[in-house]
Amino acid sequence: MAGQKKYNITLITGDGIGPEVTSAARKVLAASGVIIDWEVVEAGQQALEKHGTTLPDDTISLIKRNRIALKGPLTTPIGEGFRSVNVELRKSLDLYANVRPIRSSLGVSVHHSAIDLVIFRENTEDLYAGLENEIAPGVAQGLKIITECASTRIARFAFKWAQSHGRRVVHAVHKANIMKKSDGLFLNSVRKVAQDYPQLEYHEIIVDNCAMQLVMRPQQFDVLVLTNLYGDIISDLTAGLIGGLGIVPGANIGDKYAVFESVHGSAPDIAGKGIANPLATIGSAAMMLQHLGEEKTAARIRAAITLLLAEKQQLTPDLGGKASTHEMTDALIEKIKLLK
Ligand code: NAD
Fold first, then answer.
1. What integer best gives the mean pLDDT of the chain?
2. Average pLDDT over residues 115-140
3. Residue bearing the CA closest to ligand 1, atom 32
């Protein structure tokens, strides 16, 4: 269409189910009418084999040039091998806020209904700083880095977002009873920010109790602010409450750049089988459109996802259905067209 805006967006297709779900997201975005010029770059194992590094300079500079990327999951070897490229990427681009909306959907069979909360996970430090040593045979040490600066900025981001999105309650999640210095610093930093938002209800909760409360009464939570590791674990817990990792989108946001990706990993157990649920990545792409100011299209994609789930006709096996990734994607595209 003449005069329509065109976006340059960097794409990391990722490992495992990454290529399947990112290609579904590209198809959906194309059908939604948004014009995107994708610049595909490599990272992770593929990049290591080709370029001798898991995060080539070109990958970082292209994301910096476009400022926005959509990303599939990247595999990280367990207990050995290269360090997490996901963590490196978030650190190199200073994507300090990991935003993960957790919302129940009609049609997805779960124990609870009416869950609508948003996780704000600090994305650059904590035990993910990757500072580990074997200090003596049989003794390993991992450093938990918590700074006032990073804790304050994730808290500001979360409170600002809560206020501008009509949210009412913010919980800071911590373990400051045990880690008095590190989690204590996080908690004090969030507490200070909370004072600037008297209109929002503010609570503090110890992470283990938070996990139990989430399983028992998740509806009491609205906005959660957490350090990196607790944020990661609580994200998967809450994903489990609403139907699994196949449907939870996410965004990594910094002051300059933003990388959108689902909460799930590369799911090696189902990779290549054509049954991965693409909705988490499509939802992340909708968050990306929202970020770009394409609110109407983002809302249309979200509405189509809601309809698709409610109808229960074309669901992938993780949601109890028999549809393939392609079938689910095509059914979603039909809905997006109907909603035009
Ligand atoms: P995972 O999220 O890949 O899988 C956990 C479970 O959820 C598996 O049973 C999987 O089949 C299922 N699942 C995940 N996504 C799904 C989808 N879209 N549709 C249907 N089912 C889905 O977690 P994992 O197995 O612990 O990790 C595998 C690899 O992914 C590891 O190397 C890990 O480091 C990496 N990882 C990467 C990211 C990222 O790139 N941001 C995030 C998490 C894990």
1. 96
2. 96
3. 75
Q: How far is CA 80 from CA 83, 204, 280, in A?
A: 8, 36, 28
Q: Which residue has the tokens 């939802």?
A: 283
Tokens of 52: 């001798």
What pairing do the DSSP bridges indicate for beta strands 223-226 and 251-253?
Answer: unpaired
Closest by CA to 55, choosing from 79, 39, 69, 74, is 74
For ligand 1, the distance from its centroid to the CA atom of residue 92, given in whole angstroms, is 23
Instruction: Say if CB 187 and CB 178 are below 8 A apart.
Output: no
Cβ-based neighbour number of residue 213 at 10 Å: 14
Task: List, in order, residues 6 or more apart from 165 with CB less than 8 Å away.
Answer: none
Tell me whether residue 7 is one of the annotated catalytic residues: no
> What three-state secondary structure class fits 20?
helix
Cα of 243 vs centre of ligand 1, distance in Å, is: 14
320: Cβ contacts below 8 Å, ≥ 6 apart: 109
Beta bridge partners of 36: 7
Where is 201: in which H helix or E strand? strand 201-206
Burial class (CB in 10 A: 0-12, 13-18, 19+), 159: buried
Give the 3-state secondary structure of residue 98: strand
212-245 pLDDT tens trace: 999 999 999 999 999 999 999 999 999 999 999 9
C-alpha span between 128 and 122 (Å, rounded): 10
Which atom of ligand 1 is the closest one to the Cα of 261? 41
Helix axes 325-338, 279-292, angle to 10 degrees: 40
pTM, rounded to two decimals:
0.97
Q: What per-residue confidence (pLDDT) applies to 2?
A: 56
Q: Specify burial of residue 97 (Cβ count, 10 A radius: 0-12, 13-18, 19+).
A: buried
